[in-house]
Amino acid sequence: MKIDLTDTTAGDINKALVRGRRAIGTPAVGMVLTLVIVTDEENAYDALKAAGDASREHPSRTLVVIKRVSRTPRDRTTSRLDAEVRVGADAGTGETVVLRLYGEVSDHADSVVLPLLLPDAPVVVWWPVNAPVDPANDPLGALAQRRVTDTYAAEQPVRELSARAEAYTPGDTDLSWTRITPWRSMLAAALDQVTCEVRGVEVEGEEFNPSCELLAMWLANRLDVPVRRSLSSGPGLTAVRMETTCGPIVLDRADGSLATLTIEGQPARAVALKRRETAELIAEELRRLDPDDTYASALRYGVERLNTAPQAAASEPEAAEAPAPAKKAAARTAKKAPARKAAAK
Questions:
Q1: What number is the average pLDDT over the span 45-70?
Q2: Which ranges are annotated Basic residues under compositional bias (predicted)?
């Protein structure tokens, strides 16, 4: 069921939600949180679809805040709030309100959102694009227990990581960090199977991918070893190679779907490591509402402390034309470098 409201108020929107629930016979119980999505018109559909899919696991009231650009001086001085209320099958397993703000009311979105929050329920704010540099000090971010951004959508993703580190507040998180959860789990499980000491690590992935940098910073922070960042043609993360006293441990994913885990002295194993959709990432972030201390430690390690390799061998025409087994062998030969000795304490 959809209810369209033009030039409305937050009070009228709440009344429309009550009318909609009564019309379909659905009570307001069962919703566990309020998800506020701050986006533009271009990205609203994809964000709303991802939130709707995630609501099957986390029934919630979803508020989509779209600040419309004023095209004339008159529009900039005329404040208006339009809303689209969705309940029932049109809103997944919760409720959805799409808010379009015009004129001066765009600068006071928090005043519009505040009366629409579920009482006594956590609030999560998600910026799919154009996130503020300091989410916790944003008027909408200040309403939330968790603030979700995505540095991959920034114009300069790697530089954005440094800005996020400086402005970090407990409760901040990043979908670029969420994307590497399966990688971190697989690498931790691989290290649990051996009793060796890690001496150096190489993280390989496409250029300007913040997930690659975050994984490298996490490994450097946790293992306290030199981590080398090398480039490939992607997609996303392609390999992690750890040099240990017992031999190399390699997690290689060349196609973005299936990876191969190789541990010295053990047979190679194929593991599922596909690239996940945004709905899966949001659903994972909504499972926990407490601060992510591991993310904070990795973020504060600093991108500038990584040993970055400027060349990407996979982009060369000769490498692209070589057979797959030869390419992998050449890459392993070319990218192996002696581990740097750890600085004496």
A1: 90
A2: 329-345
